[in-house]
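Sanity check

After download, print the first record. It should look like this:
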Amino acid sequence: MTTDTPANVPLVRESDRKRWGLWLFIPLAAAFIMLVVVSYKWKESLKMERITVAGANILPVKDVVALARIQPRTAMSGIDLYEVRKRLLQQPFVKSASVNRVYPGTISIRIAERQPIGLLSGGQLRYVDADGIVLPYVNSSVTVDLPAISGIAGIQDAEVGKVCQQGDLAEAIRILQTAQAVDSTVYHFISEVDMQDGRDVILYSTDVVIQIYLGRGDVAKKLVALQSFWKTFAKTADLDKVKSIDLRYEDQVVVKWNQMPATGAPRAAL
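Expected structure tokens:
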């Protein structure tokens, strides 16, 4: 004899499962909503306690914090990160900037700075970067050892934060970039690039003040020649007696002396 299971039993069990699932879902959903509300209120109650700055090597950190203009104990949720970033980018030395909240109470600032390549001579003290953007003077150890750029008419009118369109500035920057590419020692060897208002370019050395006639064109070749000459010949000579070095001749460095050294060598072939 067999006993048949009533047809309605599975339907009752499935209904019970759905009912129990619903009763479990309601408190879980309520707990989740409560958690979201509590979390939101917690974030709303948080205050800014500190600002961290990364990437500031030329600009003092305190200046970057001042640029952000965020008052202490400001509500974290009330800080407009986009506006803070805009204020940072108003400083010409700041090439790019990002601003983020780090809960519970930190604003994180990261900047990338423009790197000055030279010091503009004429009028107020200013710098210029490889893009030709004029930068304001900043009291920083990083910007001390920079070659000056002179002999460019109207350079004193260049506007800070803008690209300077004065003719020979781009060529002066190329000379310094080439010096960096040849060897960093060549770049640091140059104390001044005198563009001579369009005439032959003259460099001045840092070790001893010597005029170096660079002329125009073939800059890389001439600077390599200068580097080779300085390492092999000039290091053995009494540099105080050197009046000038001329790089305008093909494949040779011509030296003019205030007083001819005992060895006597006005020209050095390369």
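If your output differs, re-run the checksum step. Summary of this record's structure: The longest strand covers residues 94-102.
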